[in-house]
Amino acid sequence: MFEPPNPFPNDRPFADNAGNNNSLFSNNMPDGLKPDDSIEFATVPKGKNASTPILQRLFVICLIVGLILGGICAIGVVKLIHYWGLNDVPQSTEINR
User: Fold this and answer.
1) Of 13, 45, 76, 95, which is the most exposed, with the fewest CB atoms less than 10 Å away?
2) What is the model's pLDDT at position 76?
3) What is the sign of the dihedral through the CA atoms of 79, 82, 85 and 86?
4) 41-64: b or e for each residue (b if 16 or more CB lie within 10 Å)?
5) What is the rounded distance in angstroms from the CA atom of residue 22 to the CA atom of residue 29?
6) What is the three-class DSSP state of 37?
């Protein structure tokens, strides 16, 4: 049968990094940076961007549709309760001891 090649020689996937603690940082850091240097990440400016009004409108539409469907279901449940007579007063029975 076909066996794929072993990507890890000597069956030790982390053998290259076993003796050097900083190898994870030194291999992945851009030129001129040390592991102790801080990197500033880009931040999203506060305020409205292009998708905010679209998402707000979508949220309001989903809210209105949900309220309408909930109202229709509630009216249907009330009508079924009346149809089946589940809201009638139960008959009183005497218990003889």
Assistant:
1) 95
2) 98
3) positive
4) eeeeeeeeeeeeeeeeeeeeeeee
5) 11
6) coil
Question: How far is it, in rounded angstroms, from Cα 3 to Cα 5?
Answer: 6
Q: Are 54 and 60 in contact (CB under 8 A)?
A: no
Give just the sign of the alpha carbon dihedral 36, 38, 39, 43.
positive
pLDDT digits (tens, 9 = 90+) for 4-22: 776 666 666 665 555 555 5
Whole-angstrom distance, CA of residue 24 vs CA of residue 67: 54
DSSP assignment, residue 73? H
Is the Cβ–Cβ distance between 33 and 39 less than 8 Å? Answer: yes
CA–CA distance, 84 with 81 (Å, rounded to integer): 5
* Rounded-to-integer distance, Cα 68 and Cα 61, Å: 11
* Cα separation, 26 vs 20, whole angstroms: 10
pLDDT in tens, 32-91: 656 565 666 666 666 667 788 899 999 999 999 999 999 999 999 999 999 999 998 888
